[in-house]
Design a protein that fits this description.
Elements: E1 7-11, E2 16-17, E3 47-51, H1 52-61, E4 66-70, H2 74-81, E5 105-109, H3 114-126, E6 132-136, H4 138-142, E7 163-165, H5 172-187, H6 191-195, H7 197-207
Parallel strand pairs: 4-5, 5-6, 6-7
Antiparallel strand pairs: 1-2, 1-3
Helix pairs in contact: 1-5, 2-5
């Protein structure tokens, strides 16, 4: 049975072949196609060997689709980050969508009031897995200067936060730095096990 820890044979068109043995292919739902992995000078330089998790994380971290949850002045800095001077497209995150079902990273930019808190949580729950959250600015992270009955003291009281960005408001460079931190975190995730824990256990048992 193929394991996510095994090496994958990857061509430039992301065609994957997992090195399984015997009858293990019958139960391997990840197999797409089997071909010989013998040396071929025609494809020299176009082939890399890596783990399935590493390839999956590489694709995810370089194609983040932000959900711009602009609630206050931090949203202006978020808009500037997408402009030509800073160009968030360099990190593959320029595809901002205002539909939660098309996003995988929520950028909470601004003050979260109790009036808006449940709406933010509802949008987060409508986002498909896997998903991540960036708390942009002091207000989204801790409530900022608003120690009042109307302001939520940190969005992490409602939803899990992956990256906190300090500042009031933080500059676009700070948001880009936070985005790179999120990419580093994604690259270390065990994506296959997190999404398919039962299948991962079966694969490991078959190889044991």
């Amino acid at each position: 049975m193929c394991s996510f820890r095994n090496l994958c044979f990857i061509r430039v068109n992301l065609w994957l072949v997992f090195p399984c043995e015997g009858e293990a292919w019958a139960d391997c739902s990840l197999m797409l196609e089997t071909r010989s992995t013998a040396y071929d000078s025609k494809i020299e330089g176009n082939v890399i060997f890596t783990r399935f998790d590493a390839a999956l994380n590489w694709v995810r971290k370089n194609s983040l689709w932000p959900m711009p949850m602009g609630l206050a002045c931090c949203a202006i800095e978020l808009m500037a980050t997408a402009a030509s001077r800073f160009d968030i497209a360099r990190f593959g995150a320029e595809v901002m969508r205002f539909s939660p079902r098309q996003c995988d990273v929520m950028i909470v930019a601004g003050t979260v009031t109790y009036k808006m808190a449940l709406a933010v949580k509802r949008i987060y729950e409508q986002m498909p897995e896997p998903k991540w959250v960036i708390a942009m600015g002091a207000c989204a992270s801790t409530g900022g200067m608003y120690r009042s009955y109307a302001t939520l003291q940190g969005i992490d009281q409602l939803i899990p936060v992956d990256v906190y960005i300090s500042g009031c408001p933080p500059r676009p460079e700070a948001l880009l730095a936070g985005l790179m931190k999120l990419q580093e975190k994604i690259s270390r995730e065990r994506s296959f096990r997190n999404q398919k824990p039962q299948l991962a256990e079966k694969l490991e048992d078959a190889l044991a």
